[in-house]
Design a protein that fits this description.
The chain has a single domain, classed as Aminopeptidase (3-Layer(aba) Sandwich), CATH 3.40.630. Helices cover 34% and strands 28% of the residues. The chain contains five helices and seven strands; from the N terminus they run E-H-H-H-E-E-E-H-E-H-E-E. It has a seven-stranded mixed beta sheet with strand order 1-2-3-4-5-7-6. The two termini are 24 Å apart.
């Protein structure tokens, strides 16, 4: 994973709302369909991600949002947070931005005292699954995802 570009990761603010939505809608619509929960989180991230105790990191390149990733407070006693809504602009993929975002979100979870985080994904997203494994996530069995598109759950013990 070569990174030939300068990337800065900053916390979400209102000015990144459109980028957060657009970067996620782009990959979701390419591979799947938008679901009710996608609309909820992407249309109102302040209400459904930040206010309950979550976090969103935004990767910037030349002051443009090129990647995003959320840490959503979990209602499940097994997990503290969900790593969710990670999207990187296709125009700049392959530069290590997903890795930087993933590391950033894991560190943020640790700062917030998390012991275990999880993510739900789909195995058709091979580069994403490979990234999650590199970050230390392992597959778990016997779960029910809130998303129709998900066929794999992975967790990371911190």
């Amino acid at each position: 994973m070569t990174r030939n570009i300068d990337i800065q990761i900053v916390p979400y603010s209102e000015k990144f709302k459109k980028a957060f939505k657009d970067l996620n809608e782009e990959w979701i619509r390419e591979y799947f369909k938008m679901e009710e929960l996608d609309h909820k989180y992407l249309d109102r991230p302040e209400t459904y991600i930040l206010q309950p105790g979550g976090y969103i990191g935004v990767a910037l390149h030349q002051n443009q949002a090129v990647g995003v990733c959320a840490l959503i407070k979990s209602n499940d006693d097994t997990y503290d947070f969900e790593l969710s809504k990670m999207g990187v602009s296709p125009k700049i993929q392959g530069q290590g931005i997903g890795w930087l975002l993933g590391e950033h979100i894991v560190e943020e979870a640790k700062r917030r005292g998390a012991k275990t985080i999880y993510l739900d994904s789909n195995t058709v997203l091979e580069p994403a699954i490979k990234l999650y494994r590199k970050l230390g996530f392992v597959e778990v069995q016997g779960y029910n995802s809130f998303y129709e598109r998900c066929n794999i759950r992975m967790e990371l013990k911190l």
